[in-house]
């Protein structure tokens, strides 16, 4: 094991981890804060990838720029999904089992629709920075990893500011912990939850663009991310965004090391194994008590 | 008496189908029938944990695949008896290998049952969504292990050559069909027995309120382990003959998402509180998919399953059985005397008003 | 004095840094009617949960009927003869009233005394219990068809179905009207007369005073008073900490 290989693997892992933070932040909001088990989140991410792909192919627009432009669309989609979820499950009371099946169905339907429209071929995008790599001595920093990582950390940072500084943001945090405080703030919990869920889906637009910048995408790629996002989310302590970033970096590094030293075919087992062990032995997360 | 009717009618229906297909002389019907029956077993197995106990398993495909791969492993072992056994044991190994299908089914059941037990232990403290996500994770971990296990073909997959001679009449697929028919009856019978027993009541209390169940003296952890083991074992049994059915098994087909989705969608669409629900759901969805695969495409039939699942959980959360129950209750309150429908309901062991 | 039925010795429990229970000592004699009071957050429910096995205590021990209970899960404690009702009723929502009552019979009363109840005996017990709390007419209804007070009665009847030596009634009357409170108190006294030791956790002082032979007061996880009800409510510390609120 050479030191250079090791350091490069760690750098790649950290860059990957930054991207994982963007993938997970939506679930940290929907699952961690709102207690809505949106296992369809990765499907929305793949949807984001395909939108970035279409626009990039037809108009040549940068995928990340596309994602920012279509953010309102994803936000609206999130509002619709929440409204259906609320009317069908939350309002009727404790029927989490069916809510889960609902999202599982959504995941599946989205994936199959994408397959029907685009087939199972891998799709990729073009942008000037994708081919570019910085070299510092023996260290390689590919831009197709760096840009998504930086943008992703920026997005999570902004979300953290939003959640901790603005009125609505604080109301969102209060939704999970203190319904009474929320009432005192004279906020409508349903509206707050709808806003929060819509934001969580909106992040999928960006995460999808990052994903297709990093690697070619086909419809079933999303499934690999179910384990990752929930592993990171649980590991990060569910509702803490800084916790999410730390856990994402950790998983990124571990995955990168595994891929480098024991081959990429073992990589999926890492995140899911991580998740299983976390759930079994440390359900409160790394930073939990 | 009801049990008697159950066995007689299920064997009659299966037998009639068998005779009909033989009369048509169409082997395709057996291929399609096998798949539908396999889904009956999977849906029933899923429902023991998901419907009765309220624990959603997203990893059905993994339990199914473990059953299938245990057969592959034994098949490979049989193919290389001379290589894998010490000389003194070769004679003995040749005597017992290759195993016949019923033995493989029992073996697959044991393997997947153990995986189920392990899952249960690993997830004892997990509830609701966390359990569901853990099963999803487990499926991927197991798939990765199989992909990296060269003995059973790894990611390339494995060819299985069917044995030449057939134990009973007819072609090999007819034999497989009969085996799966028996397995489906066994699974349904098991579900029925559970529902009517103390175990079934215990499962229902776990679904409704674990803390209250504990306070009533229900050993919830033990019952959960029983449920994960039984459910896993039945799924494994459904998977064990699969390599012989398909001829060539690769991880991505054995672990296919279609199994996971179908085994959730079928009970949810049929109804989760009684054994009839998964049966109805599996027959309905299974037949629709067989028709759609032939007439349109296999991607479309998966889309149909997904849309039906989403539609049903939103519009009819109690499934088809729930809809029928509501309909019957209205009728019953109109007349106030038992009708053929209410008798049917009693036969189906549907609890009044249960969700 | 006879050997106490329940002996709580130096019981402690914390959640993170928060000390919920701090060295609780408590002895309950067979056949006693004990009232347990304390302001919100004083640790009453935590104490109940630690006694019943819903939570595990960290220090000290719980001895019941001559046996150490520490580390036993809740269902085992129920088998040994401890039963509880929940503060917020927790019926099995997909089971009928009769089926709710059948659960403890099937899983607890069944296996006690080395003899299984026959199907008939189980049914008879179910009806008897439903009759005891006045729910016989609603035996085949689902919990969602019950009123608040009926739900509380079901909760108590289900606890009684386990045929307990000790019944812990956790705020069985919160939110009920005066006449309904009297009904439940009468019910609890009736159960006590059948030989069941009862610990009643309650906020409603009228009910506590009518029911209790002895009163224990918890404040911020500590026991501050223990004695005859009239004496305890006159205790200056109790007045200061609890009644003076």
Largest interface: pair, residues per side: A-B, 44 and 42 residues
Number of β-strand runs of chain C: 10
| Secondary structure tally: strands of chain B | 2
Q: What's the CATH topology label of one domain in chain C?
A: Rossmann fold
Give the number of domains of chain B. Answer: 1
Q: The biggest beta sheet of chain C, please?
A: 6 strands, mixed
Q: How many helix segments of chain B?
A: 18
Structural class of chain C: alpha/beta
Q: Give the C-level CATH assignment of one domain in chain C.
A: Alpha Beta
Major sheet: arrangement of strands of chain B: 1-2
β-sheet strand percentage of chain C: 15-25%
CATH architecture of one domain in chain C: 3-Layer(aba) Sandwich
Helix content of chain C: 25-40%
Uncertain segments of chain B are 349-355
**What amount of the residues of chain B lies in strands?**
under 5%
Distance between the termini of chain C: 36 Å
Could you explain how this protein is built, in words?
The complex is a heterotrimer of chains A (289), B (355) and C (245). Chain A has helices at 3-33, 41-59, 63-69, 71-90, 96-118, 143-165, 167-177, 179-184, 189-214, 221-235, 241-262, 267-281; strands spanning 133-136, 139-142. Chain A has 289 residues and is an all-alpha fold. Chain A has a two-stranded antiparallel sheet with strand order 1-2. Chain A is globular, with a radius of gyration of 19 Å. With 355 residues, chain B is mostly helical. In chain C, the strands form 2 sheets. In chain C, strands 6-7-8-3-9-10 form a 6-stranded mixed sheet, with helices on both faces. In chain C, strands 2-1-4-5 form a 4-stranded antiparallel sheet, with helices on one face. Chain C has helices at residues 44-52, 74-80, 97-109, 119-132, 148-161, 178-193, 205-211, 229-234, 236-243, and strands spanning 6-15, 18-28, 33-37, 59-64, 67-68, 82-85, 166-170, 197-201, 214-219, 222-227. Classes of the chains: A mainly alpha (289), B mainly alpha (355), C alpha/beta (245). The interface between A and B is large, with 44 and 42 residues.
Secondary-structure blueprint:
The complex is a heterotrimer of chains A (289), B (355) and C (245).
Chain A: H1 3-33, H2 41-59, H3 63-69, H4 71-90, H5 96-118, E1 133-136, E2 139-142, H6 143-165, H7 167-177, H8 179-184, H9 189-214, H10 221-235, H11 241-262, H12 267-281
Antiparallel strand pairs in A: 1-2
Chain B: H1 2-24, H2 27-52, H3 60-79, H4 81-84, H5 87-96, H6 101-122, H7 128-147, E1 158-159, H8 172-196, H9 198-208, H10 210-215, H11 220-239, H12 242-246, E2 248-249, H13 251-254, H14 257-270, H15 276-295, H16 298-315, H17 319-335, H18 340-347
Antiparallel strand pairs in B: 1-2
Helix pairs in contact in B: 1-8, 2-8, 2-11, 2-14, 2-15, 3-6, 3-7, 3-11, 3-14, 6-11, 8-9, 9-11, 14-15, 14-16, 14-17, 15-16
Chain C: E1 6-15, E2 18-28, E3 33-37, H1 44-52, E4 59-64, E5 67-68, H2 74-80, E6 82-85, H3 97-109, H4 119-132, H5 148-161, E7 166-170, H6 178-193, E8 197-201, H7 205-211, E9 214-219, E10 222-227, H8 229-234, H9 236-243
Parallel strand pairs in C: 3-8, 3-9, 6-7, 7-8
Antiparallel strand pairs in C: 1-2, 1-4, 4-5, 9-10
Helix pairs in contact in C: 3-4, 3-5, 4-5
């Amino acid at each position: 094991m050479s030191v250079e290989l090791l350091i490069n693997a760690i750098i790649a892992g950290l860059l990957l981890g930054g991207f994982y933070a963007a993938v997970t932040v939506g679930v940290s909001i929907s699952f961690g804060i709102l207690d809505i088990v949106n296992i369809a989140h990765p499907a929305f991410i793949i949807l984001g990838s395909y939108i970035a792909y279409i626009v990039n192919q037809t108009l040549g627009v940068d995928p990340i720029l596309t994602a920012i432009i279509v953010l309102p669309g994803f936000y609206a989609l999130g509002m619709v999904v929440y409204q259906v979820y609320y009317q069908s499950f939350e309002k009727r009371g404790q029927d989490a089992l069916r809510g889960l099946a609902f999202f599982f169905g959504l995941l599946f339907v989205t994936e199959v629709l994408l397959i029907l429209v685009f087939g199972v071929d891998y799709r990729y995008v073009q942008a000037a920075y994708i081919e570019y790599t910085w070299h510092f001595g023996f260290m390689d920093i590919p831009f197709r990893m760096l840009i998504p990582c930086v943008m992703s950390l920026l997005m999570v940072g902004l979300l953290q500011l939003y959640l901790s500084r603005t009125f609505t943001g604080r109301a969102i945090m209060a939704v999970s912990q203190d319904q009474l405080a929320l009432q005192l703030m004279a906020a409508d919990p349903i509206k707050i939850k709808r806003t929060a869920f819509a934001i969580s889906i909106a992040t999928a637009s960006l995460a999808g663009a990052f994903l297709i910048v990093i690697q070619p995408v086909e419809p079933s790629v999303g499934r690999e991310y179910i384990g990752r996002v929930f592993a990171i989310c649980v590991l990060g302590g569910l509702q803490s965004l800084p916790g999410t970033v730390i856990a994402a970096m950790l998983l990124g590094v571990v995955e990168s090391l595994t891929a480098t030293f024991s081959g990429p075919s073992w990589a999926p087992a890492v995140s899911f194994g991580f998740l299983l062990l976390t759930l079994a032995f440390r359900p409160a997360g790394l930073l939990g008590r | 008496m009801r049990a008697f009717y159950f066995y007689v009618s299920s064997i009659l229906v299966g037998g009639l189908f068998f005779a009909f297909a033989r009369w048509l002389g169409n082997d395709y019907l057996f291929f399609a029938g096998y798949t539908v029956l396999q889904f009956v077993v999977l849906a029933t197995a899923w429902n023991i944990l998901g419907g009765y106990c309220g624990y959603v398993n997203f990893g059905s495909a993994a339990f199914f695949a473990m059953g299938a791969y245990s057969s592959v492993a034994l098949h490979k072992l049989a193919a290389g008896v001379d290589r894998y056994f010490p000389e003194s044991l070769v004679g003995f190994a040749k005597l017992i290998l290759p195993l016949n299908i019923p033995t493989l089914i029992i073996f697959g059941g044991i393997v997947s049952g153990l995986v189920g037990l392990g899952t249960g232990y690993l997830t004892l403290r997990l509830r609701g969504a966390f359990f569901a996500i853990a099963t999803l994770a487990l499926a991927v971990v197991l798939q990765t292990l199989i992909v990296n296990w060269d003995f059973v073909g790894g990611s390339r997959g494995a060819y299985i050559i069917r044995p030449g001679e057939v134990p009973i009449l007819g072609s090999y697929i007819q034999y497989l069909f009969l085996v799966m028919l028996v397995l489906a009856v066994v699974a349904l019978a098991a579900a029925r027995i559970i529902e009517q027993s103390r175990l079934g009541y215990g499962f229902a209390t776990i679904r409704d309120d674990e803390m209250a169940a504990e306070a009533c003296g229900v050993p919830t952890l033990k019952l959960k382990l029983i449920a994960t083991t039984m459910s896993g074992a039945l799924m494994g049994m459904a998977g064990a003959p699969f390599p012989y059915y398909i001829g060539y098994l690769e991880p991505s087909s054995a672990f296919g998402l279609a199994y996971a989705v179908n085994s959730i969608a079928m009970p949810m669409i049929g109804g989760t509180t009684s054994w009839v629900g998964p049966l109805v759901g599996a027959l309905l969805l299974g037949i629709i998919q067989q028709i759609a695969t032939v007439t349109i495409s296999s991607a479309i039939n998966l889309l149909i399953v997904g849309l039906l699942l989403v539609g049903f959980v939103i519009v009819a959360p109690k499934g088809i059985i729930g809809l029928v129950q509501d309909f019957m209750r209205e009728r019953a309150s109109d007349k106030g005397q038992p009708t053929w429908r209410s008798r049917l309901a009693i036969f189906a062991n549907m609890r009044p008003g249960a969700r | 004095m006879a050997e106490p039925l329940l002996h709580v010795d130096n019981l402690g429990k914390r959640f993170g840094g928060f000390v919920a229970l701090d060295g609780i000592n408590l002895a309950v004699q067979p056949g006693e009617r004990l009232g347990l009071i304390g302001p919100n957050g004083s640790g009453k429910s935590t104490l109940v949960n630690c006694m019943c096995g819903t939570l595990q205590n960290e220090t000290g021990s719980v001895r019941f009927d001559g046996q150490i209970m520490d580390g036993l899960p809740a269902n085992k404690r129920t088998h040994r003869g401890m039963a509880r009702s929940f503060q917020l009723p927790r019926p099995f929502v997909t089971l009928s009233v009769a089926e709710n009552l059948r659960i403890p019979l099937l899983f607890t009363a069944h296996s006690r005394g080395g003899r299984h109840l026959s199907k008939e005996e189980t049914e008879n017990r179910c009806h008897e219990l439903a009759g005891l709390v006045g729910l016989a007419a609603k035996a085949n209804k689902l919990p969602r068809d019950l009123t608040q007070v009926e739900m509380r009665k079901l909760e108590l009847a289900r606890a009684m179905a386990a045929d307990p030596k000790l019944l812990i009634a956790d705020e069985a009357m919160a939110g009920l009207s005066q006449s309904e409170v009297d009904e439940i108190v009468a019910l609890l006294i009736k159960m006590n007369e059948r030989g069941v030791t009862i610990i009643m956790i309650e906020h409603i002082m009228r009910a506590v005073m009518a029911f209790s032979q002895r009163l224990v007061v918890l404040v911020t996880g500590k026991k501050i008073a223990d004695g005859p009800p009239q004496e305890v409510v006159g205790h200056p510390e109790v007045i200061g900490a609890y009644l003076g609120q």
